[in-house]
Amino acid sequence: MDLSGLAPSSEEGSSSPDSGSDFEVMLWKSSKRVARTPPSQGQVAKRPRRRAGSQLPARDTSPARSPEPNQLFEAVRSGKTALEVVVDEWLETYKQDRETGFLELANFFIRACGCKGVVTSEMFRKLQNSEIIQQLTEQFAEDSAEYPLALSTQPWRRFREGLCELVATLVRRCQYSVLYDEFLADTLVSLLTGLSDSQVRAFRHTSTLAAMKLMTALVNVALGVSLHEENNQRQYDAEQGKGPGCRAANRLETLLEQRKQLQEQQEEIENMMNAIFKGVFVHRYRDVVPEIRSICMEEMGKWMQSYSTSFLTDGYLKYIGWTLHDKQRDVRLTCLKALQGLYSSQDTAVRMELFTSRFKARMVSMVLDKEPDVAVEAVKLLTLILQNMEDVLTEEDCQGIYPVVFASHRALAAAAGEFLYRKLLDPKGEARQERLQRGETRAFFHLLLAFFIESELHEHATYLVDSLWDCAAALLKDWEAMAVLLLEESSDEAWERKAQASERHLELLLGQLQEAVEKHSGREVLEAASRALHVLCDPELPFHGRVDYARSRLVDQLTDKFQQELPELLQASFLDEDEVYSMAATLKRISIFHNAHDLTPWKLFEPCHQIVQRAVDTGEIPTQVLIPAMTCLHFYVLWELAHISAGAFMQEHVLELKRKVDALCSLCQSCLTDLDPSVQEQAYVLLSDHLLMFGPQLAQRGREALSSLVLRPDAGLQAQLAGFLMDHVFNHAEPMDADQDDSEGRIEALHQRRRLLAGFCKLVVYNVVELSAASDVFKHYVKCYDDYGDIIKETLNQARQIDRAEWGRTLLLSLKQLLTELLLQHGRGARLSKSFAEIRDLARRFALLFGPHQARNRPVLVALHREGIKFALQSPSSELLAPLQLPFLEVLSEFSPRLLRPDKKLILAYLEQSCQAVLSPEQQQEVWTPLLTYRNSLRLHNPARSQAQRRPGSATKRRHADESSGHSDSSLQLSSRLATPTLTSTVVKGARGMSQPLPEDKGSESDFVESQHSKSSHLAHRSASRQQRITPQRLLGFGLGSNLDRHSLMEEEEEEEEEEVVVIQEQSSEEEDSSQGLVTRSRSNRLRDLFDSSILGLEEL
Where are the stretches annotated Disordered (predicted)? Predict the structure, then answer.
């Protein structure tokens, strides 16, 4: 049977239905069922909805206050009558009158919730489930939190068991007839779903328990139907395999009819289970009541164990995995026990590989749970995983479990001892008696002692022995084997043989390493050999002297070969392929070993320097020789620096190292212009690494004597590094003949470009290059966001902490560069291009980086606007044309929302004075869109009063009304009021409003962008209609040849601002008070000093 339709979707897990919903009279009725013979009393309609305008009789439909005794309820409470008999009697009543029978069952669940109300026949026929539950809720005695499931006194102690048994018995008795009558199951599931969505805890708790037990019973029925289908299929296949003369008459037709009936039953059961799962489980597994969450997890574990074919899937397992993080002890404990039932069988465990890999870290961490009983069950679960899933738990995972054997909690230590025994002491899982018969106790104690000595976790061996007593008591009581171990004496001869064997093995290993280095030239093999020698040369090892000798002998062979081939390389004008390959392979081996081993005693700097110098001078050195030679120079300088930094040194050593560093940097700078991209890339990497290693931090923390080694790149070198980034990182193009299926190669190339970019960004962050040099990186933040966005954003944040003022100037410089490039390409039509919109988007992203600290950002933002205005107006035209760079004001307007109210007024005044000083009187009369946009972003309006005063009439009247109503900021605000969320079924519904704004993440850039997007979409629609009023000639020429006067355009602009009030939500009262406080404080002497006219540069005009 396929139950894939039961898999919950993300929407089901993130929303809950309205408490007033009737569950749409069952979500699961997706297909029309085959009609069956109705009961003798005829089909009873399921509570039809009232027609519009129909009038019901004026009668009281409220629940009765003095209910009649309910036979089902009294039988379950007393526990004196067998529930099979009670259910059979109820079935007889139901078959005679199913409405009466169902009402008795419904009132049983109502009474089980502790409610004394009764659902009458009139209520059942006239009202929806939500209305019935609402009336029952109003009549419910909320002054007491006690209800049958919450009571533990004598009459109610076994009520929970009776309720669960009743539901199971009911389904079991009805599974062949009444369960498929399209009334009982539908109506019962609908009732329980409505009750489980109630605000009353008693309703929710009891109905969830009943629904989950009903689901468990349906799963058992579905499993039985599935088995019947398989048997039917086997019978059909066997009958069909018989000859025509041997078949029973109409046997095949009978089997086909049975199969069809079984399939229909299976489909109906699937629909019932689907309704319960989506209507109850998906919402209640995260209920606020821990008992309800535990019920859901416990029953889901049963479904997966009994019917694993349908329920043991990742779509259902994820709920248990999520609930492992529950804050309540009982819920976590229930999840662990449910998982133990699944991992206890190897057949089910192998089907949980994806779940195990996803939640293994959480299960391992629960070993240290603050609740000891939860930790015990976690260790037991991991023991089952160890037994039934091979190689799932890594050595690192097991290392976190071993120390628990020393825990003071006895049960926890015993569980960990069982795990330790299964993993280390008895990995094959052999019977302990068999091990005793073979005399393997000796091996057991050797392993146990080795663990105790190597762990170094505890001094008390008693804890370790006690933890193993339950699982390995027979081995621990083998006193004869322990006596033999205690009487053993170590043999000198044995130790000598062991030492000799170790020496032979070491010689064999060193010989194999040398052979691998001599025969192979692959980078991975050489790096592995280099690391192995580095580990074996550890001074703490007793044989490190022999390994050091073998390493020195190997390096001698490589350097001798290199020195022999060097003269021919430097003197010959032509080399054959064999000579080039031999030289390249030798240098490659030396460069890789130079990374992990100090090869400065072999004095390889000068020979390698000659090779690189000749390559720069003549270009005759092959690339495969040049690159490892540059690498050798790089590591040589770093090892020299390590020697000087490690201890005392003489000044001549520093000067000699300075000479080598300068020589290497000069050669690498020359190689940046090489024709081979790989040489350029290697030179860039070495330069960035050396500039970082020999940066300003080298002469800090007591190393002032090394100040002469500090490298300070000049403007030319910084420009070359930035140019390399532009050519090889940002403007990189895929080769035309690149294989489209070579995704791995493209990913590796992307990672390499990211490493190149990170090298330059580190120079910026560590103050090696000027912060302004990062403008070439920052301007690609949006364009290359998918590939390098994380690196550039981190660089932006780090640069802001270095120098906030210089950081702001660098952001502005990036935008200036982009606009200048755009103007060079498109001229005055640049503003209408797609690239201009990208520049504005970049400015918007930059504005978000200023964060919520307005006081700290005030000087930076004011300086940014001031310099931006100067840039936009610095190239005035003698004609009526707008300044060429005037569109930059639109870009600058993206930073206006970050300004404080007083700053907006001062910036607006500075803008007006700048326009008067730079523009001619004729130009000042022109209306240019960028200038209007920027002015509007700085103006202060009062949206509330403007909206209140807006009425039909002329634009002039509205403008006068606005002028007399004060001013407030009409720009987009970061802390805008969010819309009130839709009330769910678990929210108390009433007349009180949601007056408090929702909290928002001030540091979330994505949230702000998303909130602005919805506003921008509406404003963009109005902007399009506005552009229909403005002639294209004005948009293209910023006022050239326009007959539109300034007065009419200002009226349209004010109309647009009034419409914006409808879109932009009002700020909260706290923000209003804060803004007023800022305005008041702006009149103080401190703010007058900060925003003095001399600071804004007004005196220059």
Answer: 1-71, 939-1035, 1049-1083
Q: Is 539 helix (H, G, I), strand (E, B) or coil?
A: coil
Say if CB 132 and CB 76 are below 8 A apart.
Answer: no
8 A C-beta contact, residue 166 and residue 77:
no
CB 1089 within 8 A of CB 906: no
Rounded Cα gap, residues 429 and 694, in angstroms: 59
Q: Is the pLDDT of residue 1062 over 50?
A: no
Residue 907 contacts residue 868 (beta carbons within 8 Å): no
Sign of CA dihedral 869, 870, 875, 876: positive
Structure-token match 């329980």, residue found: 192
CB 922 within 8 A of CB 880: yes
pLDDT in tens, 521-542: 899 999 999 999 999 999 888 8
Alpha-carbon distance 356 to 455, whole Å?
27
Q: Report pLDDT digits (tens) over 391-436.
A: 888 888 888 898 899 888 999 999 998 998 888 887 555 544 554 4
Q: If you count DSSP H runs as helices and E runs as strands, how many of each does the chain have, helices first?
A: 51, 0
**682, two tokens:** 């290697």
Instruction: Transcribe 282-337 into DSSP letters.
Output: HHHTT-SSHHHHHHHHHHHHHHHHH-HHHH-SHHHHHHHHHHTT-SSHHHHHHHHH
DSSP readout, 956-989? HHHHHHHHTT---B-S--TTBPPPPPPP-TTS--
Specify the pLDDT at position 661. Answer: 93
- What proportions of the chain, in percent to the nearest 5, are helix, strand and coil? 70, 0, 30
Q: How confident is the model at residue 598 (pLDDT cuts 50, 70, 90)?
A: very high
Q: Is the pLDDT of residue 285 over 50?
A: yes
Contact 349, 385 (CB under 8 A): yes
- The angle, 0 to 180 degrees and rounded to 10, between the axes of the packed helices 544-571 and 492-519 is 10
Radius of gyration, alpha carbons of the chain? 41
908 Cβ contact list (under 8 Å, min separation 6)? 935, 938, 939
Q: Is there a contact between 269 and 221 (Cβ–Cβ < 8 Å)?
A: yes
Paired tokens of 530 = 């280099």
Residue 92 vs residues 70, 72, 101, 110, 1100: alpha-carbon distances, Å: 16, 13, 9, 21, 101
Characterize 344-374 residue by residue with b for buried, 16 or more Cβ atoms within 10 angstroms of its Cβ, and e for exposed. eeeebbebbeebbeebbeebbebbebeeebb
Closest CA to 276 of 331, 226, 216, 206: 216
DSSP conformation letters of 1071-1084: HHHHHHHHHHHHTS
Two tokens at 916?
């008067």
CA distance 183 to 99: 9
Residue 995 near residue 978 (C-beta atoms within 8 A): no
Structure tokens, 704:
């002032």
Please report, for residues 31, 215, 248, 415, the alpha-carbon distance to residue 229 in angstroms, rounded to integers and kept in the order given.
Answer: 21, 21, 20, 43
According to DSSP, the residues that pair with 940 across neighbouring strands are 969
pLDDT at 978 over 80: no
CA angle 1009, 1010, 1015 (to 5 degrees): 95
Q: Could you tell me which residues are beta bridge partners of residue 976?
A: 1067
CA distances from 495 to 304, 499, 509, 702, 942 (A): 57, 6, 21, 50, 93
Which of 288-292, 359-363, 1073-1077 is predicted least confidently?
A: 1073-1077
Q: Which residue ranges make up each domain of the chain? A: 67-285, 803-940
DSSP-based three-state secondary structure for 1067: strand
Task: Answer yes or no: is pLDDT of 947 > 80.
Answer: no
Confidence of residue 876 (pLDDT cuts 50, 70, 90): low
- Structure tokens that stand for 354 in this block: 């994806």
